[in-house]
Amino acid sequence: MTRPVFAWLSMGQFGHAADPVNFDRFVQQVKAEGVNIMHSPYQWSDDAKIAAEIEAAPKDATIIVGGASLGDNETLEIANLIAGKRDIDLAFGFQRSKFGRQFQVPRNVIRAIEIHCPNILADPFGDDPWVLASGNTRTLLKNIPVIAPHPGDFGQGADIIVAAIKQVVAS
Prior knowledge:
This protein is α/β, with parallel strands linked by helices. The chain has helices spanning 15-18, 22-32, 47-56, 70-81, 155-170, and strands spanning 5-10, 62-68, 90-94, 111-116, 140-145.
């Protein structure tokens, strides 16, 4: 029997006004992989709502959480909010914003991927790779540099994350 796969995907500040096409396209790519995308895309500020929905999800569900820009920042806040209650099979982010709160990857995240842009001209909002929380030896963390304009949720960055989601769905 295959486990159900749920994903909560959050946009950055200003939502569709700042990213009218790319994130929606990405959300549809995730849905096409057979993932229940819940009410995605969420706003970056929906962190408490998402945490509550994750806690209420079926106990055998595979959990994916990710976002772009401030949605990326909040991905790790969500992981921290549910630490000790639920595991996250895959957490990911596109170009975490230096203007948001900075969280570390807690040990309830099994696999984490951060797409960041090391070129300040392409992404003036921050080149902020993720770091593991102190003592976290469980999470497999990959910080992948991709030079793309902020929030980087398209093209090569999206391809990397969709490939990781395919692996999670298949496992």
